[in-house]
Amino acid sequence: MPAYYSEFDPYAAQWLRNLIAAGHIAPGDVDERTIEDVHPDDLRPYTQCHFFAGIGVWSHALRRAGWADDRPVWTGSCPCQPFSSAGEGAGFDDPRHLWPHFAWLIRERRPPVVFGEQVASKAVGPWIDLVHANLEALGYAFGAVAFPSAGVGAPHIRDRTYWVADYYCDGCKQSNPLLFAGGPNKAGRDPTWRLPWDDLERHECPDGKIRLRKPGLSLLAPGDTGELDQLRAYGNALNAEAATQFIAAYLESI
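and the corresponding structure tokens:
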């Protein structure tokens, strides 16, 4: 069965279609409606459902971890702005707090496994508690762990909380995958997972911080919006290696 991708941003949605056509992520359909307009019956034809799909990194990571395209799973990285230090700090009052809609779809369809991701900070603690409580009330075993991209070889921190909910978890191994905090060459995969960061150059930004960038990358100037859609899509995307390692740790535990 085809996969389902929910992504309301037109630029990212077309990016998903391009990735599907190129064979980089699971074949499927892209729905540009907001999750608020999605009904559980809309999801009946699909084995895999990816919400807030962005540029399809969850699908890509599932494949890299050895998860077949026809194996049931849902994923969703709910908007981080309500709880991010870069947001307005509105928390549960922010209209972008869309977990209740995601939770309703999960309750109605009961996918066997759900993977998710959120920012890692003290402010997001109550959100994780809510997700945990909601999913356990539905009968899911739930766990979450925060770790930085640096833990999987990236030259930056980018702390993120990864979580998983398993509807049929019965007697999972004592070596709980949810304590996993990154590490190389899990599940016997090729150790070339480390990314080629050596070609990056250091750039001093106007705020005085030093950041890495690829050589020749043009920076945005005030009023230049030509590449903002692409930058936004990249900025909202998961670290593929971090997601891959988390999924692999889950697979090793069942």
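(Above: one complete record from the training split.) Residues 3-253 form a domain with the Rossmann fold fold (CATH 3.40.50.150).
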